[in-house]
Design brief:
With about 250 residues, the chain is of the alpha/beta class. It has one domain: Aldolase class I (TIM Barrel), CATH 3.20.20. It has an eight-stranded parallel β-barrel, surrounded by seven helices. Helix 1 runs parallel beside helix 11 and helix 10 packs parallel to helix 11. It is globular and about 45 Å long. The protein binds 1,3-dihydroxyacetonephosphate. 1,3-dihydroxyacetonephosphate binds next to strand 8.
Length: about 250
């Protein structure tokens, strides 16, 4: 399996930030893992043009469940594909919280991504209250069951475990806790899609990944890469994470 270092720029970056993309490509012309950046929608086409001919893949951060129509402000999966994206992040906790996205809506978006030929990066994660109540596995299991359609495989799906309380906080679960959730997700995928398919679907960890903790997180069983927010904005930091994953 090729591991994946994915960067989520969230609502950050204008064209001036494309210099970071050039620097990342220059520093890692042949990375030992798959590398992806998901910029804001306004930069997808420009970033895809900059990345052409390189190993860097480009993703969107959301898409609508429909291919086109009267949905002011939304972007469809075919549009992302047309702009040069190969992946799309779906079900991020910030979209669940800020836009009230439900598992059912995310389920429909994943299907739309697949129909457009995009790889869906499906995000799951418990809140701090849910973890404190001992419900982390139950919560991510329910999210996985309700938001991932039948037909998932390594070619169209990546799962990202992102505990809500670890995003942008500098706090992370213990390595044992990360391993517990990733092992649980692998088993849940195996029950539904078979062991062979489950073994090939990449499970990313996300939430306060940075150069200083990437190596130890990548050494955890069933961690096949990372979904990185803040530390993906600077080529030096994200490049160090790419290097750590390549070495893992
Ligand atoms: P941070 O790496 O900034 O904690 O964000 C993680 C995240 O939400 C990536 O999607």
């Amino acid at each position: 399996m090729q591991k994946l270092a994915a960067g989520n720029w969230k609502m950050n970056g204008t064209r001036a930030a494309l210099a970071e993309v050039d620097a990342l490509i220059r520093a890692h012309p042949a990375p030992g893992c798959e590398v992806l950046l998901a910029p804001p929608a306004t930069l997808v086409a420009a970033m895809a043009e900059r990345a052409e001919g390189s190993a860097l893949r480009i993703g969107g951060q959301d898409c609508h469940a429909a291919a086109s129509g009267a949905h002011t402000g939304d972007i469809s999966a075919p549009m992302l594909r047309d702009a040069g994206a190969s992946h799309v992040i779906l079900g991020h906790s910030e979209r669940r919280a800020d836009h009230g996205e439900t598992d059912a809506q995310i389920h429909a978006k994943v299907g739309a991504a697949w129909s457009a030929g995009l790889v869906a990066i499906l995000c799951l994660g418990e809140t701090e209250a849910e973890r404190d109540a001992g419900r982390a596995l139950e919560v991510v299991g329910a999210q996985l069951a309700a938001s991932l359609p039948d037909g998932a495989g390594a070619e169209n799906t990546v799962i990202a475990y992102e505990p809500v309380w670890a995003i942008g906080t500098g706090r992370t679960p213990s390595l044992a806790e990360i391993g517990e959730v990733h092992g649980f997700l692998r088993r849940a995928l195996a029950e539904r899609f078979g062991a062979q398919t489950a073994a090939a679907i990449r499970l990313l960890y996300g939430g306060s990944v940075k150069p200083s903790n990437a190596g130890e997180i990548f050494a955890v069983a069933d961690v096949d890469g990372a979904l990185v927010g803040g530390a993906s904005l600077k080529a030096a930091d994200f490049g160090a994470i790419v290097a750590a994953l390549s070495a893992a």
